Amino acid sequence: MAIHKPKHIMLVDDDQLFLKLIEQVFKKSGFNCTIAPSAEAAIELLKEGAAPDIILSDYEMLKMNGFEFRRYLMNEPLFKDIPFVFLTFFSDKDLVEKGLDLQAIDYIIKDTPINVIVSKVNNILFAVDKQRELSENEIKKAAKSLNIKSIPVKPPEIKEFKVDFWHQAYQDIPGGDFIDFIKVNDRYSFIVLGDIMGKKWMAWFFTFGFLSYVRSAVRFAAFNKEYSTSKILQQVNSIICFDEVLKDILSSLSLLLIDSETKRITYSGAGDLPLLHYNHEAGDLSMISSSGLLLGLFEEGNYSEKEIILKPGDRLFVFTDGMIDFIDKTGKKSDYNQFLKTLNPFMRKENNFTDIAANLFSNNLSEQVDDRSIISIYKN
Amino acid sequence: MVSIYKEHDNVLLVKLDIKEASLENGDAFKTEVIKLFEKYQKSIAIDMSAVGYIDSSFLGSMVSAFKHLIALKSELLLIGLSKDITNLFALTRLDKVFKIYNTFDDIT
Hints:
A: alpha+beta, Rossmann fold, Phosphatase 2c, domain 1, six-stranded antiparallel β-sheet, 9 helices, 27% strand, elongated, B: 108 residues, alpha/beta, Transcription Regulator spoIIAA, five-stranded mixed β-sheet, 3 helices
């Protein structure tokens, strides 16, 4: 079940007593609160990274008043979309209209009972969430009708191997992870796993640019019978560094070529996490690292190739950074070794991949902070 | 989010005062670093010791700021990375991209 994050409200008022009082009430109602004794202080806090879901600001303040504060925020692209509510003792009609001109979502008279203020704020946040959900559904519908996918529907059939994958989008919104399986012929198949640095829709839109370049480079290589994963990565990187749209977008990429005839796997990586190889005979998991840099970083990406030989019962895992993000008492953290430890017990049993994926995040560290994708290659 | 600690001849020493560096503050970070560069016209060294977690969106903003400074013949240097973040940089080869130091004194 999705864990609902407490809402974060920023309360701005130069009446310290009222500020403390209203903070207590919002806290009791389950809100995280950031308080600011002036508009100037609020701006500083926002610049320092406070990212409230809503701002509730007094109108009458010394120096910068509520309207000036709102006007300032409207000119700042990072802050202009934070829902903003005025709180004031004035009930003057002109003030209200002026406030609404500044696209404030609402206007609450200050002597309204505080519990009513809280429920009004809750209603506003509910309406904002609902509107966002509707917009997201519209985009999802549009994406579906265009039949564009950054994640395949099912794994490929590859002779001598069994390939599976599992993907979980962050907050159920398509994000920057992308997967592709390109079967060139009965002998050669490519496996692609990438992660655009960003989250949700913004990252998702760029996955198609990257995927198109990867697919073209793979097809050209196959056409020329040049089966080199490092050359393909270098080619994709060179194009991205020159692409006006993608050049400021970075992505990691793991590219694997499975040769069903020699039963060998060739691997090149671009700023990706090391793969994990489960050696069935030895019963251990070991890391396989690559040397390449993120796609789009420098024109020379330093891509190398590794040959991997899987024995029967061996398994190879390719995954994105969402798999190694955890939350503990101290907060969020990225911990590759923790992931390795989480995965290890599943290896000892005769688990299939579906069981592994289903149980991997069923412990108390399971709150998701990014897209999670993992591909498993099992040698029959 | 970014506060100036000390100004040296060729490098500006700043502190990043956030615990979780993520999508929410990545753009603001990049804008602040570029503004600082435009004002001081020198390389920027960032003390990251307060940061416990960096997500890939924030890393993207850091790399983007880094590319911006490199193009203008300056650098973005990093100081005081936590053990987890040092590991993440090593695993993804970002330790080959950024110059990473333990303390400000190691730079100046």
